[in-house]
Write a structure and sequence with these properties.
The protein is of the alpha/beta class. It has 8 helices and 9 strands. Helix 1 crosses helix 6 and helix 2 packs parallel to helix 3. It is globular.
Amino acid sequence: MHSRRGTPRTIFISGASSGIGLATARLFHKRGWRVAATLRNPSAAPAWMSSPDILALRMDVIERHSIDLAVKQAVAAFGGIDVLLNNAGYGLSGPLEGATDAQMRHQFDVNFFGLINVTQAALPHMRAAGAGLIMNVSSIGGLIGMPFAPLYIASKHAVEGLTESIRFELRPFGIRVKLIEPGGVRTDFISRSQRWTEHPAYADAVAATRRMTEGLNASLPGPESVARVIFRAANDQSDRLRYLARPGPYVALYRLLPDWIWRRMIAAALDRHARSAGTTALTGA
């Protein structure tokens, strides 16, 4: 658990203001790591982040200057970055036909290009140290497609492909790469109306989808179990690439079932919620 001549290891986390990022920062701090926790508004950081072994840094993954400054501050304070956790994310749901250019670009600016920006800023320090670990938070949506989340899922598929590819070019420098793939974890993605695209042709189907996802989200556990998977992956010295975290039955069923059965199963679930809401899901399988 120690590096750089016995000093505690350091993790740099993007998107540490809530959810998985916040839970991960807390767990690593409890386990004796030094934590550079980045937030868009560090003044809102919880009181426990005032510890000497935690830096609450301002960073927005779509602002390159804020990334460069946060990485520089973390390296200056802790002597380097052992683990980078690219966790910051944004979830856009709704029909593709209703998505605006601004919505589509923002989805990829945060989930894909933002991840690249942070990785590029951290890599020179890891190469100089001859060691490092980059962990990218994907999703089971990076493995399978689900209704009315095409852009979010596309961004996570992009993260999967990027991560799987860069491990080849980074391995000669002693830098390993891993994917964290959370499944059912309670988030605030679906509760924010601005994170849904709109189009009248899909109104009933979207209403059914929102009804279903809101019901599921309320019953899901918090992000602490995912943080534990991240901690385990950070301490795993193997070259294992993927770490599923609370995937639920979806990945297994997707891999096991013929495509036509999978599609009918998802459509039937949406139709049940549509009927309970008095609408038509229009999920032709």
